[in-house]
Amino acid sequence: METPVSTASIDLTAGWNGEATSLPSLPAPRTIEETGIRATLLEEIAIKIVARERDLSARALGDALGLGPSVTDELVQRLRKAVLVEVTGHTASGHRLAPTTAGRAQAAALLATNQYAGPVPVPLASYVESVRTQAIANGRVRPQAVREAFGTLVLDDEVVRQVGIGIASGAPLMLFGPSGTGKTSVAERIPLVFGGGVFVPHAIEVGGEIVAVFDPGVHRPVGAPPPQHDRRWVYCERPFVVAGGELTMATLDLEYNATSGYYAAPPQLKANAGVFVIDDFGRQRMRPEELLNRWIVPLDRGVDYLTLHGGAKFAVPFSVLVVFATNLDPSTGLAADAGTTITDTVFLRRIPNKVKVGYASREQFHEIFRRACAAAGLGYDPGLVDRLVGLLGHLNQPLRPSIPRDIVRHVKWEARYEGSKAELNAATIARACRAYFALSPEVLGDTQLTPNAG
User: Rounded to whole angstroms, how far apart are CA atoms 271 and 213?
Assistant: First the structure.
């Protein structure tokens, strides 16, 4: 039987810039029935763990399953009654357990079809309720929180304001502009607006199948869980998932591993209650129209449909803030850099919030360079940066916000290679520019950026 998530909540004052964020309490189950998972599936996972470890305490088994002592004891009694495990001793951590001959045989048979041997999954219904409770749309986005989140970037106030409005809408947001203008950096800071955290399950169970959700490459655990917390859930920062050119239609559905016998969640499911960035939109292996057509229903209704390998479909929440970062010009459907047609402009109207992240002004370029120097421990010379700005103009290079960081980084690399102290001067900047813009010494010599150089 599936047990719905408790309606009680925990108030976390860390979220929403001082406003309380409501999260499901997720109390630890006290019985097998309260896990919401059929007992036979729990037994199968448990015997695989016992057989793998060969000898472990009941407490260690409970830790591996994400279950408390009372549920673990109930489960051990069932395994002992079935003569699948035996007690080999007693310690402060409880019974010592080992698989019987029958237990090892059953574990081997189970592992041949399904190798999942981790925390017990949570029921799909519990997962659905948890996402609804923790949805970004449940809170209010305050201008001050937005300004603080983007305070480390050098942006026009109007850009920050437009991004804030887009975040508050909960609707898809497009950050567009030429390459090197910081679109991805803007997207990376969006989760900071929300604060707080969310509970993510290790796995969910759907019709007897297991879908692994928690991904250590995506989900970052924070803090200690509340007392009596259901350890099948991990308290994490709000998810931030980035998918680039590798994104295909197949990666937007469940990934079934025929060897392991269970599924991996697609990126949008891992991003639930957080932010999902489609980076370099328009450069994916699929056509942009295919991607948006795949998401018409999820974006409109907040529900996605995933398919098990047998063909059965099931619904899951689609509770993500989708951000498209692209060099596409939405007014023309052309790439800002290459001038090639990417998509139909009618299709782009499905994305209601579009914010241009453009080149830096001269003043902004100076400030970005100053911050890059400070972060690298280098001295900042306004006159030298002025001469660099002049050089970029001569080369018909726009003031991309990425240039200061890349130039400073190259200066550091050169010093590390030569075993010398990094120093920002006319010669080191000239050499960095030669490498960065593929220039020859004849075009840009070491002394060309010195004062009064001809």
Answer: 10
* Residue 176 structure tokens: 């567009």
Alpha-carbon gap, residue 383 to 421, rounded angstroms: 21
CA distances, 389 to each of 177, 364, 365, 399, 403 (Å) = 20, 12, 9, 8, 11
Q: Is residue 216 part of a domain?
A: yes
Other beta carbons less than 10 A from residue 185's beta carbon: 18
- Do 205 and 316 fall within a single domain? yes
The answer to whether position 29 is within a domain reads no
DSSP-assigned letter for residue 243? E
Confirm whether 15 is domain-assigned.
no
Q: Which residues contact 197 (CB under 8 A, 6 or more apart)?
A: 12, 14, 15, 23, 222, 223, 235, 236, 237, 238
My answer on whether 54 and 180 are in the same domain is no
Residues 76 and 58: beta-carbon distance below 8 Å: yes
Token pair belonging to 232:
């099948």
**Domain end: 72, 92, 118, which one?**
118
pLDDT for 113-162, tens place per residue?
999 999 999 999 999 999 998 888 777 889 999 999 999 999 999 999 99
Predicted pLDDT at 294: 83
Tokens of 353: 């919030």
Tell me: do 345 and 401 sit in the same domain.
no
Answer yes or no: do 249 and 378 share one domain: no
Q: Per DSSP, what are the bridge partners of residue 96?
A: 57, 89
Strand partners of residue 56: 97
One domain for residues 295 and 415:
no
Predicted structure pTM score: 0.83
Phi, psi at residue 194, to the nearest 5°? -85, -35
The arithmetic mean of pLDDT across residues 367-376, rounded, is 96
Give CA separation, 201 vs 103, 130, 177, 212, 356, in Å.
28, 10, 37, 8, 36
- Structural domain boundaries enclosing 148: 136-356
Structural tokens at position 228: 């009596």
One domain for residues 337 and 257: yes
